[in-house]
Specification:
Helix content is about 60%, strand content about 0%. It is mainly alpha-helical and about 450 residues long.
Length: about 450
């Protein structure tokens, strides 16, 4: 998509003409449907539309659930937990709304992780598309905060103690940490004022995400759509290399969204508890700390990084630094080739990066001192606070590779790697192959 696309919309009725001169929203929709889009986009590009569907599902179900939720909690009563139980049992279809909303958070993160990895693989963050990537990173940060606030609201056993851990982590930030901690908690400890603040922020942030999504799409419309080949489409080949967004991609995205929603429905109706922590079905008890505190799966990679560093302040810097690196990515990559399709060596490092992320999530969901491989072949080697084959040490190794990937591998490979020849246009490989076959 490109900003220099000329409008082809012609108002037909008097109402359309009147509205078009005052608020051309119909023109905007019609022009968007007719925008020239690269004709080689694969199914990895459909997750952008899927994310929009997920956001709408979360906002709609969240607004309805907020009508029945009570953000009240103290040492003697847990009305928040009771209100969630009342939603499940007494509100018409309340169980369905709650399961859609709770499972929807996981589906949202599945889609956003795939969307970000696709952008990383195909170089969608490179000039002139830096602002699209930066706004996407802002959306990701807001999603993490929104998910954490929402995770605390049921005031189950894991929710309460997870809130205690994370707020204390935020309080460890030098200079500004104690002030933020006091504001978040609303007092000396996690209590009812904390819950009310989290409820307000959890309700507000999805609408902030929606606003940034609008900016994200605006930047996309201005800078243009990337493609698997990773080249900018010149005006000379635009007619040959693009197709209208509708009906080609509306049908393709619609089909992918239907498959995604079917998978979503299977989880909601047949295994709604598979993505939820069983400990959160127990009312919060401030006097009884769970043996192991672990966030939801989509936050565990960052929790594993936090826990991998022996020093508390160091762990905070590593966790937030892992997110900050995403914002610096457009300037860390020194390669002139966007798509890793033409960077075979870098492709292997990317595969290792994906494995690293999955491994960090696995480590974040396991006790740090439990052995990864239970065998007598690896003797106990007490180093720091865990054995060499513990989840703690595995998390440290994976954390090291995470930072190595962004700070060393990406800049160095951009300078040293010899990429494969990149075609001049999207249609060039197909046309040249056809000419060779005919010849």
């Amino acid at each position: 998509m490109s900003a220099d696309h000329e409008s082809t919309y012609i108002p037909k009725t008097g109402i359309e003409k009147w509205l078009d001169t005052r608020l051309p929203i119909i023109r905007f929709g019609a022009d968007y449907m007719a925008l020239p889009t690269p004709k080689n986009l694969n199914y990895w590009w459909t997750f952008g539309g899927i994310l929009s569907i997920c956001l709408m599902i979360q906002i709609i179900t969240g607004v309805v659930l907020a009508m029945h939720y009570t953000p009240a909690f103290n040492s003697t009563t847990n009305q928040a937990f009771d209100s969630v139980e009342r939603i499940m049992r007494d509100v018409n279809f309340g169980w369905l709304l709650r399961y859609i909303h709770a499972s929807g958070a996981s589906m949202f993160f599945i889609a956003v992780y795939i969307h970000m990895l696709r952008g990383l693989y195909y170089g969608s963050y490179k000039a002139p598309r830096e602002m699209i990537w930066l706004l996407g990173c802002v959306i990701f940060i807001l999603m993490i905060a929104t998910a954490f606030f929402g995770y605390v609201l049921p005031m189950g056993q894991m929710s309460f103690h997870g809130a205690v851990v994370i707020t204390n982590v935020i309080g460890a930030i030098p200079v500004i940490g104690p002030g933020i901690l006091t504001w978040l908690q609303g007092g000396p400890a996690v209590d009812e004022p904390t819950l009310k603040r989290f409820f307000s922020l959890h309700y507000l942030f999805p609408f902030a995400i929606l606003g940034v999504v609008v900016l994200h799409l605006w930047a996309l419309h201005t800078s243009g759509q990337n493609n698997p080949v990773g080249i900018l489409i010149p005006k000379e080949t635009r007619k040959r290399d693009t197709v209208p967004f509708h009906p080609y991609y509306t049908v393709k995205d619609g089909f992918a969204a239907m498959l995604f929603l079917i998978m979503f429905a299977v989880i909601v109706f047949f295994m709604p508890g598979s993505l939820l922590d069983p400990s959160n079905s127990i009312p919060a008890n401030p006097l009884q700390t769970p043996p192991e505190i672990s966030p939801e799966w989509y936050l565990r990679p960052f929790y594993a990084m936090l826990r991998a560093i022996p020093n508390k302040v160091g762990g905070v810097f590593v966790m937030f630094g892992s997110l900050a690196l995403l914002f610096a990515l457009p300037w860390l990559d020194t390669s002139k080739v966007r798509s890793m399709r033409y960077r075979p060596a870098m492709r292997w490092f990317f595969i290792l990066f994906v494995i690293c992320g999955v491994g960090l999530g696995w480590c974040g969901g396991n006790p740090p001192d439990v052995q990864v491989i239970k065998t007598d072949a690896l003797p106990a080697m007490p180093l720091f606070d865990g054995d060499l084959n513990s989840f703690l040490w595995l998390a440290r190794i994976l954390t090291f590779y995470y930072f190595l990937f962004f700070l060393v591998i990406i800049p160095w490979m951009g300078l040293r790697e010899t990429p494969l020849p990149v075609p001049e246009s999207i249609s060039a490989p197909v046309l040249s192959h056809g000419e060779e076959k005919n010849g």
